[in-house]
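Input record (Table S2, row 884):
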Amino acid sequence: MNRFIRAVSQLSKKKWVSPALYAAAVLFFLFFVFFPAVFVISMGLRVDLNPEVVAALETSFGVSLIATALSLLFGVPMAWLVFRSTGWKKEILNTLVDMPLILPTAALGFSVYLFWGSQYGLALIEKGFWMIALLHTAFVFPYVVRTVAAAFEELDPVYETASRSLGANTLTAFRTISLPLVKSSAIIGGMLAFTHSLSETGATMMVAGLASTAPMQVLAYKNAGNIPAAASISFILIVFAVTFLFLAKHLARKASISIDGISPRLEKRLVKFSFFKNGTVLAFFFILIIIPAFFLFIFLFQLKALPQADQMALIFSSLETSFLIACAVTAVNLFFGFLLAMFIGRNKWGLGKLFESANEVVLVVPTSALGFSLAFYWSGLQFPELLVIALAHLSFTFPFVVTPIAAAISALDKNLEQAASTLGATPFKVLSSVTLPLILPSVLAGVVMGFMRSISETGATLAVAKSVSTIPVLIVNMVKANQLADAAVACAILFAISFVLLLVMRRGVRRARSAA
Amino acid sequence: MPEVRLKGVSKTFSGNIVALKGMDLVVKDRDYVVLLGPSGCGKTTLLKTIAGIYPPTSGSVHIGARNVTSLPIEEHNVGMMFQNYALFPHLSTEKNVSYGPVIRELSAEKTKEIAMRMLELVKFPSDRASAFPSELSGGMQQRVALARALASQSSLLLLDEPLCALDAKIGEELRLELRNIVKTLGLTAIHVTHNQEEAMSMADTIVVMNKGQIMQVGTPEEVYFKPANLFVAYFVGEANFFECKIKRRTAKALEVNFLGKDFRLSKADASRIPDGADKAIAVFRPEKLVLSKRQPYHANFVKAKIGSRRFLGEKIRYELSCGSRPIIVRRLGFGRGFKTGDAVFVSFDESDALLLNCPDGPIEKVGG
Ligand SMILES: Nc1ncnc2c1ncn2[C@@H]1O[C@H](COP(=O)(O)OP(=O)(O)OP(=O)(O)O)[C@@H](O)[C@H]1O
Ligand SMILES: [Mg+2]
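Output record (adenosine-5'-triphosphate complex):
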């Protein structure tokens, strides 16, 4: 082992090594991640806007808009609440906000259905548009809160203090100073929420009833053999998602919030109602997010019997498939993703920005469109089904691995690495002894996100799978077949495993952070 | 009339960090007060306590007739210039300056008028008023921060290291301007710095702080020539410290031995050493020592050799060897002066000698 490391270290001194590695990463990204994801665009567009397609698109955009708007409206104050609270209250709020993120979306969808729609819960809302909207709000809300709360944490509190000392009350200071300063994060959070909502397939299928969203329609057309229709919806979804991405990035840079407008005197009176405001936000959070998301467990405790042995076997074989794919894909993505992140973070050959954008495009492409596109990209080669599923997961999880690592690398102080080089360290030694320890938390974060995403995704999997089923796909099928008890047990197992994994990895991240 | 009074103000941060220890201070109306002290001594904390940003752990803060101890920040009504300025990064220069008036809901014309007047007062180029803080140089940012504090129309100005982010030259130019503006507008200013030259050249009153306590309050001359204790003497300006043995102390004179020689001092200030002390530190400012080739006619001299000389422009700084510790002397630089290696007599006027209480440890520690 030692000899191997020494050999690698010596090899890394050769001039051609690093360009060759970067070239490999770029080629991997282009041919295994990017082109497959957007291949459908090259198929030529014959937009087939029949009423069914239009209705599906309307549903999708309507749902995404409602979910994003609600998440921003309540998510920004919620982020403020999380940021402002201290001690154990902060711990609890932080954990609660993260909870729905740990819950795989299929489990979340099932839980939301049980709470709002089934006779085990409130039985208040029929499957359909509004239940989809509720579900989507539940799973995009944490994205907004996380992004905005992180921005609040990074904000230098001196600006707000300065504003207060110039006479502003807390509400005015928030509106004129803190809010504008986190505006770009809120826009980016909103964009992530919107594109995720546009992309979600599996959980949506459980609660859609007679309604149909655009990603669902992609699958439906594909299964029915109506390729032109599936292609045109995929095309529209991709174009819209990418447009939103660049629009949001533009807005984040440009738009500003004026300091005049609402009267500070009025706001001073409103400060007194902050208890009321906090109450509303918390009520929203619990009634629309937390309780529906975890109602599943209440249902679980009412169960009388475990699933039949054959169903259990099915659950475990699907789990095996899911974890096999997730592990393999994450390992490959870690290697190439790390290289591409270096490429982006260091802006190699002046191409960093370009590849950063390309990477973000893959991040926002709705996964069922991605899966559909990818199936065509690889269709010339007769790959086994499992490999195609893995290739799909490779593509859509890749940006999750790259993004945090690239951000950490571009924030890194270059002097540290240069100092190590001047002390005679080989490039490999610099990487392993200086760079890697410093960015390890971000690397682990990327791995965790990519892995979790692979475990819980359904859209792309359904778009390429014929007989193999991953665990979230199995859950969707069980709910559709009304095997609620089986589905609940599968959800619980999946949740338990994800939860433990996440705890382990979080501990790893924390340890890495304190070591760095 | 913003007379600022602090009564027994203490501030303890979490983790038992004592930043201020029972401070009593009165800042007179229209006074330019400089808080001077080493890094970490609690200057910023004191300023923020006056501004209401930190509530004091005990004691009270009064601004004018108001006890502001428990009022929220926005009701303290002070113009504060923050360390590193804290200009709002998302607002243009003009909007930064008009922030205070906008918050007070003055009319649009009035707001604009105040902003423009203040920018003019601090000599900010009016064609850059729409620039954002990140597009301005350090010196310009400093001016904007000052204009913003002035535009709050408070007559109490709090300045936290307003000149420290600038290079020495610009910083020195701005000292005078800053003081002039404060004086022209008839404001009370409390200015924090750890730069003693800045303090000397700007203050009406200097407050020397160390470890959360006030060491001395006085005019620049008092603080420089009559330091209350060894810390002040050490921290403010350069000084020679000679450890001396007290041989006899009578109402008329003090007989001491330092630099290996006996001196009988009848006019030296010995008020700061306690009765019965057998040790003291004799403090001499470098410009109060006289060099000569010929032996002086009085007895207050020692023999020494010029170890090195450094040309400072107006003055020449000599380092002389005499015993273990070098003696520093600063003399005006005209004439031929002395060369390295010259044997000279170092003499002093008795009234320029200041005797301070001797600490237990080595004297270098005091400045630390
Ligand atoms: N918000 C805070 N929380 C905890 N400790 C603090 C806080 N602010 C200051 N301190 C501590 O109080 C002491 C005094 O700090 P302060 O910032 O007032 O010093 P200063 O004299 O302004 O120093 P400098 O010249 O470096 O700005 C220091 O020991 C500092 O660590
Ligand atoms: Mg300070």
